[in-house]
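Before relying on records like the one below, remember that each one covers exactly one chain. Contacts with other chains, cofactors or solvent are not represented anywhere in the record.
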Amino acid sequence: MMSSRRSSTSRSAGRTLGRAGMVLLAVPALAALAAGTVARHSATRPSALPLRRPSLGHPLGTDALGVDIFAQLVHGARISLAVGIGAAALSLAVGLLVAVLAGWRRGWTEAVLMRITDVTLAFPFLPLVLVLAAFFGRGLVTTAIVIAAVSWARPARVLWAQVLKVREYQHVQAARAMGASGVRTVGRHILPRLVPLASAQFVRVANAAVISEAALAFLGLGDPTKASWGTMLSNASSANALLTGAWKWWMLPAGFALTAVVLGFAFMGYAFEERADPRLATSSGRLRFLAGRRRRPATTAAPVAVEAAGGPILAVSDLRVAYAAGMAPAVDGVTFEVERGRVTALVGESGSGKSTIVMSLLGLLPGDPVVAGAATFEGRPLLRASAAARVRGRRIGFVTQAAMNALNPAYTVHAQVAEAAALTMPAAAVRARADELLADVGLPAPAHHAYPHELSGGMRQRVVIAMALANSPELLIADEPTTGLDLVTQSSILRLLQDMKARLGLTVLIITHDVQMVLRVADDLVILQDGHVVERGPAATVAAAPVEAYSRRLLNTRLSPLGAKS
C-alpha cells in the first residue's frame, strides 16, 4: 500500500511539473508568435533617444542605441525558441539514427558508431561549442547546427541502451522470426517504444541549446543582426548597465525570460522521463567494442549437396554453437534430419541446447555467436544470416514460446496476423487472410480484434500459430508450444498442430522438454543432453526400447493424461 502511494505521489509530481513547464513555455511561445503585433517598435533599429527609462511608449525603455528593449525581449523569444527547437530536432534525428543503427545491426556497426559517440561525449560541451562557433562563423542556422553537432551523442547513448533492451523483447523476436524485415520491425515495434525517452531527450537538448545560444550571443559569437536574449545581455554588459539603473529593465527581463524557458524545458523533460523507464533514463550501458566481424572456426564438413525432392526438408550436420568466442559451446556436434511430412521432436531438459539449435538455424541468436557446421533447408545452406532471413517467416514458420510475450500488447491480434501476412501478400488481401487464419486455428470471430491481454493463454497460442502459418510455410517450428498451459489446453494445441499438418501438408519440428507430451504427436525423436544428441530415431522405437540411460530417465516417468501417440 505504501509503495503504491509513493508511486502515485511520484506520478502526481511529474504531472504537476509537466503542467508548470507547459505554462512557463507557453508565455514566451505566445510572445514569439505574436511578436509583430505585441511589439510596436523595431527590435533592431532605434526608435527613441538612448537609455530612456520605461514609459507607456517604451515599457522597458531603450538601450544605448535607442532600440526598444521590450521589442528585443519579445522578438528574442523567437530566436531562443527557434534555435532551441531546431538544434534539438537535428540533434535527436542524428542521435536516433545512430542509436537504431548501432542497437539493431550490432557487430562492427555498433562498435564504430558507439566509439564515435564516446569520443564526442569525452569533449567538454560548452568549450567545444565555442570553438566550433568561432570556426564556422555567426548565424542562427550555423549556431543551431553547431549545437546539434555537439549535443547528439548523449541522446544517441541513452536511446541505444533502450534499443538494446527492446530488440530482445519476445514480440520483437517473434516479428523477426515471422520474417519481418529490419526496417519494418524497427518502425513498427522499436521506434514506438522509444517515443517517451526520445521526447525527454528532445527537451533536454532544447534546454541546453537555449542556454548555449545565449552564451554564444553574450560572448559575441551570435548573429549581431538578430535580437536575442543573449545579445541583449551582451549589449547591456558592454554598455555598463550594471553601473547605472538601466540594468533593472535591460538585463533582468532577459534573464527572467531565459530562466523561465530553461525551467520550462527542465520540467517538461522530467514529466517525459517519468513516462519512460526510469532505469533507462540514467543508464548509459557499457560498450563492448568488437575487434572484427563474426569469426567462425574452420570446419572440415564438406558442402552438403542439394537434397532430392524426397529427401529431408531440414538436415543438420555437426552443428556447433558458442555464444561468444572463447566460451564453451552450448551445442557441440549435433546432427539430425527432419523428414518431409513428419513431426520431429527435439527433446531435452532445460539447458540441453534445443532452443539454441533452432535460434542458430533461424539466424536469431543474440550478440556475436560463433556457429560452425552445416545445415540445409530444402537442400540449400541455411546457417548464413542472409540465407536464414530469406526463408524465415516465409518458407519456415516459427511458433515462439511464451505467446503473451510474443505478441505486441499495443496491437490487436488481427492486426498482428495481418502484419505477418503482409510479408508476401498485397495489402488488399491481408485482412481477409488474417480472418481466414484466425478462423482456421479456432479463434472465435468476436476475439479477432481483441488485444493479447484479453485472451486466454491457449487463445494467444493459437494466434501465434496463425501468424506462423500466414505465408504458407513448408516447415513449422514450434518452440515449447504448450509450456505454461493447462493439460486440456495442451491437448487442444497438439490437436491443432496435428490438424494443420494434415490439412496443409506441413512438416513440423517441435522443441520441448516434455517427452511424454510429445509422444502423442511425434513421428521421430531427437534426444539432447548438454548440447549433444544422445539418441534419435522413430518415436515408437525410442519410446519402446531406449538405448541410452538418459533417454530411459526421460521416458521413465508416469505418462501424462495426454497418453501415448494415438
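The chain has two domains: 15-50+59-282, 307-392+513-566.
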